[in-house]
């Protein structure tokens, strides 16, 4: 009883450890549980154009950064004839800088970034912002702004509702007299956002501009969209001045925050930056693997992924072997099916993966049948066992060679895969079956041979399943879970499924 308890404890520990590591890789590192999982990837290209004046040129472009819900996959900079450097600012922002000693005429520079949706980490800025600086209004503008803020204050309950009502007042149709006076003839979205920021500063509410892109497939020459962000209850809240709604718009990528210039050009004029974007899909596993390697994740850095590709390809097949052992354990221990050899069905199943199931079964029957026929003739020569086995190996190789040549001449190229069958195992199978035939008769040969093919077929169906292949290679820690199951099966000493029929008459007589 104590030994069984030890088995249960060890199996439980193995299962918990294996499942925990697999869940960590899925949720923390992003490895998918399904083989065909694909992730939406956005390629955003910033195009900088300007006219150079024939003097030294310095171009500085604000760059996006890691943010909630968006992760950077790759970045590329096109610098024909320009020097390039990336500068990290003290506030955590980044800028790209192109330089050239002398340039003349129209110049074009490109910055390309690939991003994909990521799980938000809900990190917020906790440092208090600096007090806002009131805008410089003339007396008439100050009076209109004060009157508008008084109206908003009357119909709001807190900072969030105050900002919402203020933005609605600036975009409603028709506008109130005070809002129309402050906006003037310019009703563009950037001007509305800038006016809202000025009014929020006048009201004493810390605020800043947020500029970014709405990701939409196939869009070209887009400009940044201006949003309003205010400090409320210890963190920043974003508002869309186009709709007066809180929160970032869907599919929105923040490019920069605060009063920081997007583009600075020294030594040129007529500068502008435009943005184009394109959506594509990439395998989720490739993205997770690339990100994990960049971050030096220990589970990836010290894993199969660190091996050369050739060794990885070998392990992709090797890691399927334990699946075959589990199938054999189930069929032999729980079901009670007899096979010719303990793990011979696994090797046959591996051959089936290369030959396909139907051709594999046909080739197996042809080689084993022909080998048995020749083995019976060898038995008449009274050879020692070692001599018989050596002779059978030679005969099997000759059969496989003849089948391959004949199939090639007939154009049956699929039969050429007969070479994937393990020759030594086939030879031992033929020897065992011939001895079994002599001792137990053809019925037992049919039972064990059929059982071997049935188990091999079941193992093939499991090992060739795309989900199983994906999980075994990308989550090899699940082998511990499989080991736990095998330990539980291995200590089973009850009746096998096929033995129950022996006791059916006893049940019928009760």
Structure, described:
This protein has 510 residues and is an alpha+beta fold. It has a domain at 313-475. It has 17 helices and 13 strands. The protein has a five-stranded antiparallel β-sheet, with helices on one face. It has a four-stranded antiparallel β-sheet with strand order 3-6-1-13. The model has no long low-confidence stretch (mean pLDDT 85).
Please sum up the structure shown:
This protein has 510 residues and is of the alpha+beta class.
Share in helix: 40-55%
Provide the succession of SSEs. HEEEEEEHHHHEEEEEEEHHHHHHHHHHHH
Total helical segments: 17
Could you give the order of strands across the largest sheet? 10-9-8-7-11
Shape: elongated
Span from first to last CA? 32 Å
Radius of gyration (Å): 36 Å
Core attributes:
510 residues, four-stranded antiparallel β-sheet, 21% strand
Chain-wise SSE layout:
Blueprint (H helix, E strand, L loop, with lengths): L1 H26 L10 E16 L3 E7 L6 E9 L4 E6 L5 E7 L3 E14 L21 H16 L4 H13 L5 H7 L5 H14 L4 E8 L10 E8 L2 E6 L4 E2 L5 E6 L5 E4 L1 E16 H11 L3 H4 L7 H10 L2 H15 L8 H12 L1 H23 L5 H26 L12 H18 L1 H22 L2 H9 L3 H13 L13 H6 L1
Antiparallel strand pairs: 1-6, 1-13, 2-5, 2-12, 3-6, 4-5, 7-8, 7-11, 8-9, 9-10
């Amino acid at each position: 009883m104590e030994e069984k308890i030890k088995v249960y404890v060890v199996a439980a520990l193995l299962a918990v450890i294996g499942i925990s590591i697999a869940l960590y890789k899925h949720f923390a590192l992003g490895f998918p549980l399904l083989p065909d999982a694909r992730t939406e990837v956005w390629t955003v290209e910033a195009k900088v154009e300007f006219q150079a004046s024939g003097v030294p040129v310095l171009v500085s472009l604000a760059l996006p950064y890691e943010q909630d819900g968006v992760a950077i996959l790759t970045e590329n900079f096109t610098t024909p004839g320009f020097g390039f450097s990336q500068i990290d600012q003290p506030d955590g922002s980044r800028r790209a800088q192109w330089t050239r000693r002398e340039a003349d005429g129209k110049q074009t520079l490109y910055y390309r970034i690939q991003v994909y949706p990521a799980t938000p980490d809900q990190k917020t800025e906790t440092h208090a912002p600096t007090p806002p600086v009131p805008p410089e209004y003339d007396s008439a503008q100050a009076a209109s702004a004060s009157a508008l803020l008084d109206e908003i204050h009357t119909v709001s309950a807190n900072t969030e509702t105050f900002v919402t009502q203020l933005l609605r007042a600036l975009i409603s149709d028709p506008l109130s007299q005070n809002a129309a006076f402050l906006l003037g003839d310019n009703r563009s979205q950037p001007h509305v956002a800038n006016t809202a920021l000025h009014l929020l500063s006048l009201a004493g509410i810390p605020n800043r501009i947020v500029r970014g892109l709405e990701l939409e497939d196939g869009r070209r020459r887009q400009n940044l969209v201006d949003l309003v962000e205010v400090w409320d209850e210890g963190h920043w809240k974003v508002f869309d001045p186009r709709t007066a709604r809180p929160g970032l718009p869907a599919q929105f990528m923040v490019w920069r925050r605060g009063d920081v210039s997007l583009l600075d050009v020294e030594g040129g004029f007529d500068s502008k930056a435009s943005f184009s974007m394109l959506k594509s899909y990439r395998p989720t596993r490739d993205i997770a693997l690339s990100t994990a390697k960049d971050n030096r994740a220990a589970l990836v850095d010290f894993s199969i992924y660190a091996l050369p590709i050739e060794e990885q390809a070998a392990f992709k097949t090797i890691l399927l072997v334990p699946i075959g052992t589990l199938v054999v354990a189930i069929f032999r221990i729980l079901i009670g099916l007899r096979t010719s050899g303990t793990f011979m069905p696994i090797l046959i199943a591996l051959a089936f993966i290369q030959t396909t199931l139907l051709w594999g079964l046909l080739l197996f029957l042809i080689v084993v049948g022909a080998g048995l026929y020749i083995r019976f003739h060898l038995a008449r020569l009274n050879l020692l066992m070692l001599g018989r086995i050596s002779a059978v190996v030679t005969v099997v190789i000759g059969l496989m060679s003849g089948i391959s040549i004949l199939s090639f001449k007939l154009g049956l190229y699929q039969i050429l895969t007969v070479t994937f069958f393990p020759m030594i195992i086939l030879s031992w199978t033929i020897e065992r079956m011939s001895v079994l035939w002599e001792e137990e008769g053809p019925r037992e040969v049919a039972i064990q041979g059929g059982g071997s093919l049935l188990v091999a077929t079941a193992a093939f169906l499991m090992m060739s399943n795309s989900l199983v292949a994906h999980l075994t290679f990308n989550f090899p820690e699940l082998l511990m879970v499989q080991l736990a199951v095998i330990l539980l099966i291995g200590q089973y000493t009850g009746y096998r499924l096929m033995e129950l029929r022996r006791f059916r008459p006893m049940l019928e007589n009760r």
